[in-house]
Amino acid sequence: MRRNQFFRGIILFFLCITLSLGLSVVSCSIKAPSILPDKERISRHISSILELPSYEYVYRDIVYIAEQASFLGIKHRDTQLLFAVDVRLQAGIDLRRGFSVETISAGQVNITLPSPEILLIDADESSIHQYFKREFGGEINRLDYYDEISRSKERIQADAVSRGVLVQAGENAASIITSSLKQAGISKVNIVFSNDTSRDGIR
Asked: How far is CA 9 from the centre of its chain?
């Protein structure tokens, strides 16, 4: 028997330093209104932004394990374990899937990104806190912890997706890219996500 007690969400709205560094590079090549923006510089700028996840959750998961057995009314096995562990989940754009930049005019760029996905889900073993442990007629070993943590990861990932983490990750990435390129002189930035027919685009 297991249960997820609660989680705390942390939005990794990440990019003040990245933007300040990358923006100066982009603006040098795309400020002039009569010249098409430099696609290579825009692509490098987008890559520097998307190197970081655009959304992060940290769950504090509570896990309970129990196994009991009896024979002729006499209990001969009773093992129980209650512990907590922090599980970090990151969502964003996987740069390995590539993206495209199309320069329409001096002030307009179309960008196609791969759909957001879960980039990482990792349990912090140093955060494990044991509340209760009972071993009668059997032992609870380290593998039992790992098995339950693995199941916890699957449950947490499904919960995060159902809560709209991927949608939020896409909106965060699009917002940051659009804002930085507009500051660099591109007045119209159109961002769409491939393999996502539910969006007309985020501007």
From this structure: 11
Side-chain-side CA neighbours of 107 within 13 Å: the count stands at 5
- Centre a 10 Å sphere on the Cβ of residue 125 and count the other Cβ atoms it contains: 12
| Least confident segment among 24-33, 43-52, 111-120, 175-184 | 24-33
- For residue 2, name the pLDDT band (cuts at 50, 70, 90): very low
Residue among 191, 186, 183, 155 at smallest CA distance from 54: 191
Give me 198's structure tokens: 């539910």
pTM of the predicted protein model: 0.66
Please answer whether residues 54 and 79 qualify as being in contact, where contact means their C-beta atoms are separated by less than 8 angstroms.
Answer: no
Q: Give the span between the Cα atoms of 148 and 158, in whole angstroms.
A: 16
- Asked whether the beta carbons of 53 and 119 are under 8 A apart, the reply is yes
Work out whether the CA dihedral 27, 111, 187, 19 comes out positive or negative. negative
